[in-house]
Design a protein that fits this description.
Blueprint lengths: L5 E4 L2 H13 L4 E2 L11 E5 L3 E6 L7 E7 L6 E5 L8 E2 L5 E3 L8 E3 L6 E2 L3 H4 L10 E5 L12 H10 L1 E7 L2 E4 L3 E4 L5 E5 L9 E8 L6 E7 L2 H7 L4 E4 H8 L6 H4 L8 E4 L11 E2 L2 E2 L1 H15 L6 E2 L1 E6 L3 H13 L3 E3 H7 L1
Helix pairs in contact: 7-8
Amino acid sequence: MNNPGTILMGDGDAIRTSYAEMSQQPVDWDLSDKAVEPLRKQQTTLANSTSISGPGTFMGKATRTITFEPTDMEGWWLDRTDLPGSLPIRVGISNVWTTGQIVSNIVLRSGNPHNYVRMVEHLISLRMGMGVDNLMVKLDSGDPPLFERGSLDLIEALDRCGRVTIDKPVQYVTVKEPVTVGGTYGDFVTLAPPDDLENPQLTVDCAINFNTAIGQQRIIFPVCEELTRMASVARTNTSLTKVIYCATLGRLFADVRNLGYNTKNVSIAGKSKYMNEPRLLHEGKALEAAWHRAVLDLLAAIALIPNGQFVGKIKSYKAGHRLDCELIKQLYLNQVVVPLEEMNGAH
């Protein structure tokens, strides 16, 4: 996929320049030949419920609990049990409120302005890799727990619940042609239809480029349960500069002053070295930041496509939550999401 296709937002010349930059960046781990299971035919939900607790993300001294439950409703839902008069929040692009200011994150909200959930990306991204179509997530606040093992605790909780198949077909969607949004920092995200319409999959080509010890990282892989599990331990990364800011000027702001981040649950990168031990090494190079970006951030935005599972190709360079969410919004503003069967019918 060397063509940005139709540019839905951003400067075309800048996007093409960034495409050339990304093409010159070496691939650190290419898993594109990995065999994966064919697409599921029938929808699933959970067989049982389970709860999991941990320190709050934005209120680190408070314990927060979430509960996974089966549901008869289609899609993923977030239910604030501490707000009994509020309806559950559908995981979908129409309910994105903000992508944060000081702390970049996806915030979903519906109805009452108090009915929101922050830092949802590490939770909702699992809609793309764990084979659960319909799920109710109950939370006792708008501040979900933050775990030292990334999202692996959440995956293990889903495992405890088991799965049941229901008598509804899975709807798959894609785009008819490549579409791209570009940002102001040389960043872009492209979606394209799958190459193989006989055995369509979701594949990701993700590259990052930081001026810290993280440096350049690029991975290519198919989205599947095995790689979702592997990548789930990848933590949010931050710079040493931001850590110092949060410990000084940032203390003026309640969200920052009470952040639950510590040296175990985030990866901290200085200019030339990591301040704590990075994870997910491949051939001696730490790829934690790339896996986190691809599986726990980028796929969270793809999970915001509410009425079906997206299949096709994703190409992302230097992007973040704001641009990811803008892409999904532009898909609907420009009406370019189509059922997969339309593509099959066209061939």
